[in-house]
Specification:
Largest interface: A-C, 62 and 46 residues
Order of helices and strands of chain C: HHHHEEHHHHHHHHHHHE
Structural class of chain C: mainly alpha
Radius of gyration of chain A: 23 Å
Strand order of the largest sheet of chain C: 1-2
Distance between the termini of chain A: 44 Å
Structural class of chain A: alpha+beta
Chains: A alpha+beta, B alpha+beta, C mainly alpha
Order of helices and strands of chain A: HEEEHHHHHEEHHHHHEHEEEHHHH
CATH architecture of the largest domain in chain A: Orthogonal Bundle
Number of domains of chain A: 2
Number of helices of chain C: 15
Largest sheet of chain A: 3 strands, antiparallel
Strand order of the largest sheet of chain A: 1-2-3
CATH class of the largest domain in chain A: Mainly Alpha
Radius of gyration of chain C: 24 Å
Shape of chain C: globular
Helix content of chain C: 55-70%
Oligomer: heterotrimer
Shape of chain A: globular
Number of strands of chain C: 3
Number of strands of chain A: 9
Strand content of chain A: 5-15%
Distance between the termini of chain C: 102 Å
Number of helices of chain A: 16
Chain lengths: 419, 164, 415
């Protein structure tokens, strides 16, 4: 292995041209690599211990990658196996969801729901819920009880879906291929339920301003109970497979730790924040819907490492099952559409509604100018975007394998990061 | 070591569980009654005429702008329409299968068919015209907005033979 | 018919015609070439079966079915895959070092195949199927497969890709770390067998008992090191799919990659055969001889390895027993792939140097004790080891952090 010293001086005039040593370029066409090479500020070659002059390697975990949960690009600067610097590049999945949500000369609010579905495509229901709650708050629409209970139930099913996908992807990051398939077995059952209720498996477009599009099917109770049974069975399987596995524990305990102050500084939310010990859950701190009428607990961690985030998400799945069981018993009969007008034109004003997504604190901010049929401005505050900023804290100084596990434990969904 | 042995035992358990794979395309998945496949235009069999009156509401409500239609004056005598649809195109490559066009139609003229196997080799073939949209509506009844039948055991109620 | 020059443990039958066994070019006879040809074809065919079996087992563990449509229950999937690989475009990266890039797959496959020639397959009437059971085969089976490591490093380095470089660096660390426990374990086998020949080990196991029972620790260490030498999960960090997407093998496509793949599965079967030959008695059916190594306890009279009936059965059908046992080990290794996550490179080297190597040295010492002093001191040694392990386990358990750390709280509902 050719070991050579290379000192890169800080060049204030512009990006340094990398010398075209074929073993030091990121894979890909040379011109593209040269064009995208951003200067590494102030970094020179280090580590001349033992008279060994080693070189840093810039490696590109590029947009297509089996472990980066979507089109996300990380440019890692490695020294041996340790990560010295990490540069995330996002935006590969930007589809203009917010701008599209503001377009539409007719029925703009109904159309905006579609783009919102496709941001966090794993747990779809809390996102829809945030949007409809924001608009209902703005318009002062009363939602009947049955509709709100059904929304709560489907939210929790969405959480189950998302967390089981996390389990699958996290296990695959750790190297085990079996959790992925277990997760998909459970998700298949959940998707059949979503298909029965909303019409489509992934993007049901079911919540409406004032209630729901249509009532749940006749056999909803049996179906939901069947899905819950599947979830309980699957959770037992999930636990027994890798939760106690010594190899898995060695891969995740103490890895990618985040401290509570740092998490709050970065604006993390959801299981990332709760793993560090901060007991904030939007369903409890700012209850929306009927979360103050159901009994559930929120799991809080202490150490803030990957293993605790994993355990917290599994615990949240158990708590979701508990919530759904209670809600199914409390589900009243009644209408499912409130007093929303046919044409939705909210008065001038703005509103912000926050819900607990599977990933954290999802917020929808609606500004209406009173005139148009589409929002003047709709903004989605996505939890993954803020959580992803913690990646630098998690991964720098750790091994490549730990960086991958850390990224997996943040549980990002690129649709939400990029919108 | 105990966790590893537990993991092994769990894999034995799942080895002995029957696999959940469905052998598509030999075994069709059971679709729910609400399944939203391609939007289809309904044909009124009692008067042998298409229901759509080209009011353009579905085209305006579509989030993807994938519906294009033109209408003409109705000159027949079977129903009390004023206009009837002449050309109706849906670009199924753009369609997001959200069901809004069905929801807003005031004349109950369309419905989401269970037709989802739409793959072609050429993107232009995904633009369905009126005749194709009527053809895929065969066997489909208007469901959105109608009261749900209370007595049906509806788990997977669409008969797979109704698809094509 | 004259006696051949190379010493055979199993004498050549008299009815074998002379022209087949007369030494020819480089000491190889025509019969040798025929045997090598048959062996190569058999391995290539068996590897296809093995790949199919692994995919089926993995499928059913993962609640799915594995390959199904091609052939009955997907049996023709492997030949179909090979056909597909043969017809793929041959890509060589511009920045690769072309000559050694093309050489690397062969550097991996050839040592694997070469090691197959010392495996004592057993008897298939009227032959005894071993291609070359020579005296130093224990050293041979350590030395030749280590060229595989060289092959992977060459593949990683010559690809001109940083991911493969990373993978190659990991391979180096892994290979070196796991050679040593394997060598020491094989040394203890050599002590027990009183020779450095694999075929002699099989014979010694016929005389006493399967070495698996005499050396459970050694067997365990051998299985772990062999899974690591083959880069199987949980030790496949060098080839980690989800991180560096194939490690040294990224830039290989088509049949070049096919050779890597073939070599990996051939190595799985090879190591399973070695484990069987060295620890599980090879082609022997029954593990206990009439004269067990434990003084005072005799085997089951009449059913013992030394009896004529069993020896005749072993001589005529031993190869089937060998296959059965080898496939058991192979299925175990494949099962571990689907049940376990992978360990990180530094944890992997930790495991090798801090746990496996001392354990294998302890095993070696205990084996020497057994061989020299007889059974009772050996049993005393085993007891000592177990007591030490117990003390370590108890003290470790007391030192472990108390809980998982997560607790469920009822945060009071906000107003």
């Amino acid at each position: 292995m050719a070991i050579e010293t290379r000192v890169r001086p800080d060049d204030p005039t512009g990006p340094t041209q990398p010398d075209l040593d074929p073993h030091s370029e990121s894979p890909g066409p040379k011109s593209m690599a040269a064009a995208r090479h951003t200067p590494v500020p102030g970094v020179t070659v280090v580590s001349t211990e033992h008279n060994l002059e080693t070189m840093e390697m810039t490696i590109n975990m590029g947009p297509q990658h089996p472990s980066t949960h979507g089109v996300f690009r990380m440019v890692l600067t490695l020294e041996g196996e340790r990560v010295k610097q990490l540069e995330p590049h996002i935006g590969y999945l930007h589809r203009g969801a917010e701008k599209l949500g503001e377009s539409g000369d007719v029925e703009g609010y109904r159309k905006a729901m579609i783009w919102l579905d496709r941001t966090d495509y794993l747990s779809v229901w809390p996102n829809e819920h945030a949007f409809v709650l924001a608009v209902e708050k703005l318009m002062g629409v009363q939602v009947p009880e049955r509709a709100e209970w059904i929304r709560l139930i489907m939210d929790e099913f969405g959480r189950l879906n998302s967390h089981s996908m996390f389990y699958g992807a996290f296990g695959a990051d750790a190297g085990a291929t079996t959790p992925f398939m277990y997760a998909f077995a459970l998700r298949e059952e959940l998707y059949r339920l979503f298909e029965a209720v909303g019409g489509q498996r992934m993007f049901p477009n079911y919540y409406r301003i004032g209630g729901l599009r249509e009532d749940v099917p006749v056999d909803f109770m049996q179906r939901a109970t069947k899905a819950l049974d599947a979830a309980k069975y699957a959770l037992g399987d999930f636990d027994r497979l890798i939760s106690d596995n010594e190899i898995f524990l060695a891969r995740t305990r103490g890895v990618a730790t985040l401290s509570a102050e740092r998490a709050i500084d970065l604006g993390c939310s959801g299981p990332m924040l709760r793993a560090t010990g901060v007991p904030i859950d939007i369903r409890r701190t700012e209850p929306y819907s009927f979360y103050d009428r159901v009994d559930f607990e929120i799991p809080i961690g202490t150490a803030g490492d990957c293993y605790e985030r994993y355990l917290i998400r599994l615990s949240e799945m158990f708590q979701s099952i508990r919530i759904i069981e209670q809600a199914l018993k409390l589900l009243p009969k009644g209408p499912i559409m409130g007093n929303a007008p046919k044409a939705i034109r909210p008065p001038k004003g703005d509103s912000y509604q926050r819900v607990e997504n599977a990933r954290g604190d999802f917020g929808v901010y609606i500004v209406s100018d009173g005139k148009g049929s589409a929002p003047y401005r709709v903004k989605y505050r996505s939890p993954c975007f803020s959580n992803l900023m913690a990646l630098n804290d998690l991964a720098v100084g750790a091994y490549v394998a730990d960086a991958v596990m850390g990224l997996g434990s943040i549980d990002i969904v690129l649709g939400e990061v990029d919108r | 070591m105990r966790g590893i042995i537990g993991g092994f035992i769990q894999t034995v358990k799942s080895f002995l569980t029957p696999p959940i794979t469905r052998l598509y395309p030999y075994e069709r998945p059971p679709l729910e009654p609400r399944f939203m496949g391609a939007p289809a235009l309904l044909w009124d069999d009692t008067v042998d005429e298409i229901v759509c009156v080209a009011c353009n509401i579905c085209a305006r409500s579509c989030p993807d702008d994938c519906i294009h239609l033109t209408g003409e004056k109705y000159t027949g005598s079977k129903t009390t329409k004023k206009n009837i649809v002449k050309d109706y195109f849906i670009d199924l490559g753009r369609c997001s299968y959200c069901g809004i066009c069905v929801e807003v139609c005031p004349f109950d003229a369309n419905e989401m068919s269970p037709h989802f196997e739409l793959s072609t080799y050429d993107r232009q073939q995904l633009v369905y015209d009126k005749d194709q949209l009527v053809k895929i509506a065969r066997g489909v009844k208007r469901r959105m907005g109608q009261p749900e039948p209370q007595d049906v055991a509806v788990m997977g109620a669409i008969d797979p033979s109704q698809w094509r | 018919m004259e006696q051949v020059r190379l010493p055979h443990l199993f004498p050549v039958p008299e009815w074998m015609p002379g022209f087949l066994v007369a030494p020819g070019i480089g000491g190889f006879s025509l019969g040798d070439f025929i045997a090598l040809f048959i062996l190569l074809n058999f391995i290539l065919g068996f590897v296809m079966f093995e790949i199919w079996l692994e995919r089926k087992i993995g499928g059913h563990i993962q609640l799915r079915r594995g390959p199904l449509p091609v052939g009955p229950h997907g049996a023709l999937q492997s030949p179909a895959d090979v056909l597909k690989l043969l017809t793929k475009e041959d890509l060589t990266p511009n920045t690769a070092d072309k000559r050694i890039f093309k050489m690397a797959p062969y550097l991996i496959f050839i040592p694997v195949f070469l090691t197959y020639i010392v495996i004592p397959w057993g008897g298939l009437w009227p032959f005894n199927l071993t291609v070359r059971p020579f005296d130093l085969s224990l050293i041979y089976i350590v030395a030749i497969p280590s060229i595989q490591g060289l092959g992977m490093v060459v593949a990683g380095w010559s690809s001109g890709n940083k991911y493969s470089l990373l993978g190659a660096a990991r391979v180096v660390a892994q290979f070196i770390s796991y050679e040593l426990p394997m060598v020491v374990t094989l040394l203890s086998i050599g002590i027990l067998a009183e020779s450095l020949s694999v075929a002699q080990a099989v014979e010694t196991q016929r005389a006493s008992t399967w070495f698996m029972f005499l050396q459970p620790v050694g067997f365990f260490i051998f299985i772990i090191t062999m899974m690591s030498e083959m880069h199987r999960t949980p030790f496949d960090i060098a080839v980690a799919e989800s991180e560096i997407v194939g490690g040294p093998f990224i830039e290989y496509s088509g049949m070049r990659w096919g050779i890597f793949f073939l070599a990996e599965f051939a190595a799985v079967f090879l190591n399973a055969c070695l484990a069987v030959a060295l620890f599980m008695g090879g082609p022997e059916l029954f593990p206990f001889a009439e004269r067990l190594p434990i003084p005072g306890i005799s085997g089951i009279p009449g059913i013992s390895a030394d009896s004529t009936l069993l020896r005749q059965v072993g001589d005529s059908m031993g190869v089937f027993f060998f296959f059965g046992k080898a496939m058991t080990i192979m299925v175990l290794v494949q099962w571990a792939r689907f049940a376990l996550p992978r360990i990180r490179i530094d944890q992997l080297t930790d495991l090798a140097w801090k746990f496996l190597l001392p354990a294998s040295f302890a095993n070696l010492i205990l084996t020497a004790v057994y061989q020299q002093f007889g059974f009772y001191p050996f049993a005393a040694g085993i007891g000592l080891v177990l007591i030490t392990l117990g003390i370590m386990a108890i003290s470790y358990r007391n030192r472990r952090p108390a809980d998982n750390g997560i607790r469920l709280v009822s945060v009071p509902r906000a107003a």
